[in-house]
Every structure is written in structure tokens, then in C-alpha cells.
Specification:
mainly alpha; 6% strand; two-stranded antiparallel ribbon; single chain
């Protein structure tokens, strides 16, 4: 929730800013910055130190990292006022996660 909230706030700031002289590329730069920042969060979620000796990085949490990425995208959509796109995206995300969970139980 915090990732989505922050992405929405970062998106709203250049849209609502009247004191700063913003050009048409400000929103694009904010979205690029949010995307890069969330990429680092996802990388931190995926790469973890192994508890076994010798310690090696483990690759785990791909679904969690993808969910963080989707949260940021939904926040950007909400910040831009595209609530229909955000709602459809959230529903599709839940559908995909539900299907993946069902497929994991089958294996």
C-alpha cells in the first residue's frame, strides 16, 4: 500500500504544482524516477543472502517483486486520475495471482 500511495503522491505533485514552473516532461520524469526506484525495491526483494555456509545470494520472491511493481503502476494510474485503468489493472492482478496460486498447488 505504501508503494502505491507514494507513487500516486509523486505523480500528483507535478500535476498539481502551481508554484513551480513545470514543463510537459515533468510527469514523464517522475514516472521514470518511480519506476527506477521500485526496480531497486524489487531487486532487494529478489536477491537475499543465503543462511547456509558459504553465504551466496538466493533468488526468491519474484512474485513479491512483481506485485511491488504493479502497486507502483496502480499508484501512478491513480495519481493521474485514471481510476478505470487502475481498477481494471487491480482486478487483472488479483486474477493473475489467484491463477498462479492455484497452479502452484497443482504442482
Amino acid at each position: 500500500m505504501l508503494v502505491s500511495f507514494a507513487a500516486a503522491l509523486f505523480t500528483i505533485i507535478p500535476l498539481q504544482s502551481t508554484t513551480l514552473e513545470t514543463d510537459s516532461n515533468a510527469l514523464s520524469r517522475v514516472i521514470q524516477g518511480v519506476t527506477a526506484g521500485v526496480g531497486f525495491l524489487g531487486a532487494g526483494e529478489i536477491l537475499r543472502e543465503s543462511s547456509q555456509k558459504p553465504q551466496r545470494p538466493e533468488i526468491r520472491g519474484l512474485t513479491s517483486a512483481a506485485a511491488i511493481w504493479v502497486c507502483a503502476a496502480l499508484g501512478i494510474a491513480a495519481g493521474c486520475g485514471l481510476w478505470q485503468l487502475g481498477l481494471i489493472g487491480a482486478l487483472l492482478c488479483f486474477l493473475v495471482l489467484f491463477v498462479v496460486k492455484k497452479l502452484e498447488k497443482v504442482d
